[in-house]
Model the fold of this input.
Amino acid sequence: MADITIPSRLWHRLADVIQDMGNHHSHFAGTSIGADLDVLGNAIKHGVPPYPGAELCTPQYRLLEQADKVILKHSGTQPNLSTVEQSIETAGRLMGLWATESTSAT
Done:
C-alpha cells in the first residue's frame, strides 16, 4: 500500500463529516450508531501524529482505544490496518457506503 500526503485541514474535514453524520443526520442522531460514528471521527481526527516521528499523547491513545472497541463491535479487527484506517472502514460501513457480506446481493 502506498502512503499519500493529505493536508491536515482536509483530513480533519473528513473526520468532521463522519462526526456530523453521527450527530446530526436523521438516521444516526441520538442512536448508538451515531455515538459510534462520533468516536470513529474523533479517532480519525486525532489518531494520527501531526508530523512524522511525533508521539501521540495519552488522550489520543484513549480515543484510539475507544475506536478499537467500536471497530470490534461492528466489524472485527483487521491486523494489517491501523486503528485510524479501520475507523474509516467501519465508519463507511455504518453509514452504508459499503455493503457487508450479510447484506450484499447474491
Notes: The CA atoms of residues 32 and 55 lie 31 Å apart. The chain has four helices and no strands. The helical segments are 8-24, 32-46, 58-74, 83-94.
